[in-house]
Amino acid sequence: MGSLDKTVSMYRNEEKDFRYQHSKSLIGHTANVLNVSFYDQGNVGISSGEDGNILLWNLEPIEAASQEIEEFYGGSPIRIKYNSTDKKLYAGISFKEKIGDSSLTADYMLRFKQPYDYRSKEFVKTYVDTKSRDNSLNSFDFRNGTDMIVGDVKGRSLVIASEDTSKIEVYAKVPWGEIVDIKARDQRLVVALENRLLYFSDINDPASMKPSMDFRLSRFTSIDIHPEKDLVMAGGRDGNLYFWDVTRDTVLPPRAEHKDRVLDVSFSNEGKFIVSCSADDTVVILQQPTEGDTYQWLTTITEHTSDVNDVEISDSGLVASAGMGADRRVLLHQITVNELGNGVVTPLTSLIRHDWGIRGVAINDDDDLIYTVDGQGILKVWKYKEFESIIEDRTAHLKLNTDANN
Predict the structure, then answer these.
(1) Residues 42, 59: contact at Cβ < 8 Å?
(2) Can you give the pLDDT at residue 238?
(3) Which of 3, 242, 341, 349 has its CA 20 to 30 A from that of 144?
(4) Which of 81, 113, 23, 69 is nearest to 312 (CA)?
(5) Concatenated DSSP letters for 226-253?
């Protein structure tokens, strides 16, 4: 479909519900797009516009852009994270394992030494008592760069697994409710329970824990901590963003940014931007003005067509958001700061090779590799920085001769 916004939009038919879902926008024209067509059994697209150009688009999947590493052998993927310290990708997963006469859910971590070699994976068992039925890994992060700290939901405890997994220990028992999410930053650790937040000023000292007040009317889903301040942010099932100033032990007014439950929240590297995603199919970006501490709305990304389950923002401002359900896409946007100090959000591209809703997304330090995992347990790696050259090689530009004398 050609558009007056200079783009060509592609839609795919979902056989299950007979709806067409937006799958990709083709950017290359410099004026209104007037005509579009297909040939070669739909593998090539043709578009013409008021800029006098005819563009030929090779629409076959870009195999070089993604690589399937491995299915998780029937395990259910929970979350993936890239560890900046050891440069490895980690994936949380639950397996059904035969223990005695019972089939119990055993929680593991998958650690990939080399992202393009599935044989480099290591299985890391992270539960303490193999005879317990209460183990349920929900979230994880890293302590001192290498040790894994894992939230055991039903066991109501934080578990530490050393780098070589030779030592597994209970770090702290949680006194109120089940663990929803955890986040480590520098030497600090924050934990979200259903309606209470925990703050550890020293991640190596469980006794440094400080609890928040009881948010009786709220139910949390995700959490993050400001990189430079003792400010904790949590997403709620009611669509609100909640903030706890730990230093002053003050709860700031919540922000009603979403119309459905918040599924993930994150601060940018310097804390200037906040990204949140929701079951209302949107991603909201807030920015902190040059003067003042109050975050202000910057933009809302509305291109997803199903729940947005995970959102990541890299040190350079690359935002990746993962769509569940029939969406099955990761949308990429870039945040830059203009000369006035205000954020500018630019759409980049979408990753569309998954056949199932995407559960998680992660970005490496250099922004050149993006990792995605779907509900079927398929993990893919995308060579993001090669996209531009690949697309340029696959697009033919034909300049029309508009001179009436020739």
Answers:
(1) yes
(2) 93
(3) 242
(4) 81
(5) -SSSSEEEEEETTSEEEEEETTTTEEEE
Query: Would you state the pLDDT for residue 113?
Result: 54
- Name the residue among 59, 11, 9, 55 with its Cα closest to residue 29: 55
Integer-rounded Cα radius of gyration of the chain: 23
User: 299-307, long-range: CB within 8 Å, 24+ apart, which pairs?
Assistant: 299/345, 301/331, 301/333, 301/345, 303/22, 303/331, 303/347, 303/350, 304/329, 304/331, 305/21, 305/22, 305/281, 306/281, 306/357, 307/263, 307/278, 307/279, 307/281, 307/357
Residue type, 185: R
- Count of residues making up the chain: 406
State both tokens at 32.
Answer: 């209104």
Nearest Cα residue to 179 out of 149, 146, 203, 204: 149
The stretch 289-296 carries a mean pLDDT of: 76
Write the CB contacts of 340 (distance below 8 Å, at least 6 apart in sequence).
none
Coil, strand or helix: which one is 387? helix
Q: Does residue 205 have a pLDDT over 70?
A: yes
C-alpha triplet 236, 158, 357: angle, nearest 5°? 50
Q: Who has greater pLDDT, 55 or 343?
A: 343
